[in-house]
Design brief:
The protein is mainly α and about 300 residues long. It is about 80% helix and about 0% strand. About 25% of the residues are buried.
Length: about 300
């Protein structure tokens, strides 16, 4: 290497060192004393953002719950006189009588087990029948035209009108309760699954046609993956409806092991407001738990690749 080239190289290295020093000086001038910088600062900022999001997700529902409890006390203690208070007893009385009194608590847990059995059975049957029906309707338009109106009719028929029919063929015990839960939870699964199956990208359909893909290949590799987000949305809706269906079925069919709906009917007739509201809150907790499970399952199944724009 010549002397000129050597000098040029040394000059370039010196210039780079000076630029690096200026960058460090600038960063040090803008840094806040006592706060980390560099990769540690980025990690701290990310941790702070995650904590803020978690605080928002937890803090806001807790704040709304506080407002609801405050309104509950207002109505119970101020707006209702002592003779009307059985309709909405204060929260501490519901907790004391419904949950902290051992005989009442054991009866509540037993009824919860029965209602959960009806709920999960009805929801499982609804998922199988609903997804199967939607798959059939997605394969041919004439099948959709033939079946979809009857799915709507089944959703809109009052359960009270079906009570004599169900009791005659299936009795007044567990089977009729499960059928009521299936009827109520069926339609959202059908409609959401069918919507998801029909929402696959048109360009992808053309690509599958170009490669001469068969009907079942198209269904399994294109339509079903595209339908998963809508399917799980339908599952979450039907999860809450299955709890409602179980409660409604227990109101109408009271033979066999009593559930939460059966107890609600008894407590209403006996004007035992504390135990009535304990049963109502327990049923709501069951619905929230099932809804949350399907939300968690949805994130596990489709959350890695499905990110809808907000």
């Amino acid at each position: 290497m010549s002397a000129a080239q050597t000098g040029s190289s040394l000059k370039a290295e010196k210039t780079q060192d000076q630029a690096a020093e200026r960058t460090e000086v600038t960063a040090a001038a803008h840094a806040v004393p006592g706060e980390p910088s560099g990769p540690k600062a980025a990690g701290t900022a990310a941790l702070g953002t995650a904590a803020a999001r978690l605080g928002t997700r937890i803090g806001l529902p807790v704040a709304v719950a506080g407002v609801i409890i405050g309104l509950w006390y207002l109505v119970s203690e101020v707006l209702l006189n002592p003779y009307q208070r059985f309709m909405l007893p204060p929260p501490h009385r519901v907790l004391e009588v419904g949950f902290l009194t051992w005989p009442n608590f054991t009866a509540l847990v037993s009824a919860l087990g029965t209602t959960a059995e009806v709920t999960f059975s009805g929801l499982a049957i609804s998922i199988v029948l609903g997804v199967g029906t939607a798959l059939l309707m997605s394969q041919a338009k004439w099948v959709e035209n033939a079946l979809y109106p009857w799915a709507v009719v089944l959703q809109t028929v009052p359960i009270l009108a079906l009570t004599p029919f169900l009791s005659f063929f299936f009795g007044f015990a567990l089977t009729s309760r499960v059928i009521v839960a299936v009827i109520i939870a069926f339609f959202p699964i059908v409609s959401n699954t069918l919507f998801g199956l029909q929402s696959a990208d048109g360009g992808m359909h053309d690509l599958f046609s170009l490669h001469k893909a068969g009907r079942w290949t198209r269904l399994w590799k294109l339509q079903l993956p595209a339908a998963l987000p809508a399917m799980f949305a339908g599952f979450r809706v039907s999860a809450g409806l299955a709890v409602i269906g179980a409660i409604v079925g227990e109101f109408f069919f009271k033979q066999g092991q009593p559930g939460l709906g059966t107890n609600m009917s008894v407590y209403t007739s006996l004007t035992e407001g504390e135990q009535l509201w304990a049963s109502v809150l327990t049923a709501s907790g069951l619905g929230i738990a099932v809804f949350g499970f399907f939300g968690w399952l949805s994130r596990r199944v489709v959350g890695r690749w499905y990110h809808p724009e907000r």
